[in-house]
Amino acid sequence: KNEVEQSPQNLTAQEGEFITINCSYSVGISALHWLQQHPGGGIVSLFMLSSGKKKHGRLIATINIQEKHSSLHITASHPRDSAVYICAVREFIGGGADGLTFGKGTHLIIQP
Amino acid sequence: GAGVSQSPSNKVTEKGKDVELRCDPISGHTALYWYRQSLGQGLEFLIYFQGNSAPDKSGLPSDRFSAERTGGSVSTLTIQRTQQEDSAVYLCASSFALAREQYFGPGTRLTVT
Which of A31, A42, A100 is the closest to B106 by Cβ? Predict the structure, then answer.
């Protein structure tokens, strides 16, 4: 079973700061997901990636398959970015459970 | 278009009772997943359906948990003889196909008293 580790567990920053959240995993994967969960809210998928880099607005996700590591970056952070960010991985199809294995999440607070 | 819907949004039940949780996936999505989010435990995979294939039940925590998917659309997660440790938010997600982006429902908060 894949072990998914996120860091930091908690992060408080000032509005406008550049934010980086890290995720590492132990077993080769077919895809990695970054999810966002607002307090009391549902889960929204931000990115699904298997290589390289993806960008959507102020959010950037990168993955290094060889190092089994991914980062989520937020540029020009804003209080509305305050949420829990969750990394999740899918192992190779047919290699085990086809559902996702989740990290414990990073609780991000952006102060105005 | 409509997203993934789940019902009920909240369910309080007494220990030992059976409960049924429902998930309506996005129309046309062939893959459907059930997850559980327990306080302090994070998210965990329970069961997965892909089209008409047999479900992957590898994440179900005990034989008190079962799920079915009728007509390749709506799914029901059943928990028999509920225990207090079953208290959690149960999330459903669907995707267009295997290994594609997953869309999550709002969840059902289950409290076992």
Answer: A42
CA distances to A71, A107, B90 from B103, rounded to whole Å, are 21, 21, 14
CA distances from A4 to A25, A62, A82, B36, B43 (A): 4, 16, 22, 17, 12
Contact B99 A31 (CB under 8 A): yes
Handedness of CA A80, A104, A100, A60 (dihedral sign): positive
Distance of residue A112 Cα from the nearest chain B Cα, in angstroms: 28
Q: List all residues 6 or more positions away from A95 whose beta carbon is below 8 Å from its beta carbon.
A: none
Express each pLDDT in A58-95 by its tens digit.
999 999 999 999 999 999 999 999 999 999 998 865 54
For residue range B76-98, list pLDDT tens digits in order. Answer: 999 999 999 999 999 999 998 77
Interface test with B, best of A43, A50, A56, A106 (most B CBs within 10 A): A43
Structure tokens at A82: 């305050």
Contact assignment for B99 to A30 by CB distance below 8 Å:
yes
Question: What residue of B is the nearest CA neighbor of A50?
Answer: B99
Torsion of the alpha carbons at B86, B92, B98 and B101, rounded to the nearest 10? -120
